[in-house]
């Protein structure tokens, strides 16, 4: 028996020999290459989608908590709206409620909550305002905010709750 010399190939050389032995113009090879490329593209798309979803999850993680706290802010606003005919003894109480509201607003602003601009006479914008009714108002033109019923808020650019407003019509 004749001893044949031992052949040693690197992984790259072995892969090159395998590729050379498979017919590159063969339909099976083309189909396998298409499947491989499609799988690589799908994998990249999944990675990108998961990164985007993770970033959104981190960005809006406090959304439900902040949405649950909005009624507290609404009640503080409502309490301050009905302080017009109070006597002097209640002034300190009103100042305390106002300070509490400001502290609360500062705390939620730190988490990205911003009040939607809705002022009497301002332009009605259906993207951030919800019309709950119309009123005739000779002082204001059509499609202007006549009254703010409930404040609206955005969280880091996303509308959390639209401002509920009455819209002027002539």
Descriptive notes:
By secondary structure, the chain is an alpha+beta fold. It has two domains: 12-59; 63-169, Head domain of nucleotide exchange factor GrpE (Nucleotide Exchange Factor Grpe, Chain A, domain 2, Roll), CATH 2.30.22.10. The protein has four helices and six strands; from the N terminus they run ααααββββββ. It has helices spanning 11-21, 27-59, 63-81, 91-109; strands at 113-115, 129-136, 144-150, 153-155, 158-161, 163-169. The strands form two sheets. Strands 1-4-5 form a three-stranded antiparallel β-sheet. The protein has a three-stranded mixed β-sheet with strand order 2-6-3, with no helix packed on it. α3 packs antiparallel against α4. The N and C termini lie far apart (110 Å).
Q: Please, what is the CATH homologous superfamily of the largest domain? A: Head domain of nucleotide exchange factor GrpE
Mean pLDDT: 86
Q: Biggest sheet, in brief?
A: 3 strands, antiparallel
Q: For the record, what CATH class of the largest domain applies?
A: Mainly Beta
How many domains, in number, for the residues? 2
**Principal-axis shape:** elongated
Beta-strand residue percentage: 15-25%
* CATH hierarchy: architecture of the largest domain: Roll
Task: Kindly state the percentage of residues in helix.
Answer: 40-55%
The computed structural class is: alpha+beta
- Helix and strand string, N-terminal first? HHHHEEEEEE
How many individual β-strands? Answer: 6
């Amino acid at each position: 028996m004749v001893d044949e010399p031992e052949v040693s190939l690197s992984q790259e050389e072995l892969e090159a020999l395998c590729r050379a032995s498979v017919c590159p113009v063969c339909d099976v090879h083309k189909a396998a290459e298409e499947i491989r490329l499609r799988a690589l593209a799908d994998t990249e798309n999944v990675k990108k989608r998961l990164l985007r979803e993770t970033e959104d999850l981190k960005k809006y993680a406090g959304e439900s908590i902040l949405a649950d706290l909005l009624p507290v802010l609404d009640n503080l606003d409502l309490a301050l709206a009905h302080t017009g005919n109070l006597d002097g003894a209640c002034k300190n109480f009103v100042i305390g409620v106002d300070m509490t509201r400001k502290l609360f607003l500062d705390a939620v602003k730190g988490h990205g909550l911003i009040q939607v601009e809705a002022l009497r006479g301002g332009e009605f914008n259906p993207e951030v305002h919800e019309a709950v009714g119309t009123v005739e108002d000779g002082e204001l033109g059509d499609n202007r905010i006549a009254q703010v019923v409930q404040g609206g808020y955005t969280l880091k650019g996303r509308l959390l709750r639209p401002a509920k407003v009455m819209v002027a019509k002539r």
